[in-house]
């Protein structure tokens, strides 16, 4: 979408200034270059959480909200460890 919008601006420039038609290739490469430069931060925001390089945007705010509503959830560490069953003492039975 970004390239499409920048390319549309290029065409508008060429429509209003016919002399710009002589620089059509440069303007097209400029639109492509600007789109690539502008999409890099967006790609970082979208792809970095997928590979574990950063948290998703809003993850800290979400955790703060959950902890504010349900403080016990933040302390949850999983199921309690299983306690061994009580063992009855062994008594010797002599015949």
Report on this model:
This protein is an all-alpha fold. The chain has one domain (2-74). It is 57% helix and 0% strand. It contains 4 helices and no strands.
Quick recap:
The chain is mostly helical and 95 residues long. It has 4 helices and no strands.
Helices and strands in order:
Blueprint: H1 2-16, H2 24-47, H3 59-69, H4 71-74
Helix pairs in contact: 1-2
Q: What brief labels describe this structure?
A:
95 residues, 0% strand, rod-shaped, mainly alpha
Question: pLDDT below 50 for ≥5 consecutive residues: which ranges?
Answer: none
Q: How much strand content do the residues show?
A: under 5%
Through-space gap between termini:
91 Å
For the largest beta-sheet, the strand count, sense and barrel status come to: none
Spell out the helices and strands N to C.
HHHH
Number of helices: 4
Q: Rounded to an integer, what's the Rg over CA atoms? A: 32 Å
Silhouette? rod-shaped
Number of strands: 0
Number of domains as seen in the coordinates: 1
- Average pLDDT for all residues: 82
Structural class: mainly alpha
Helix content: 55-70%
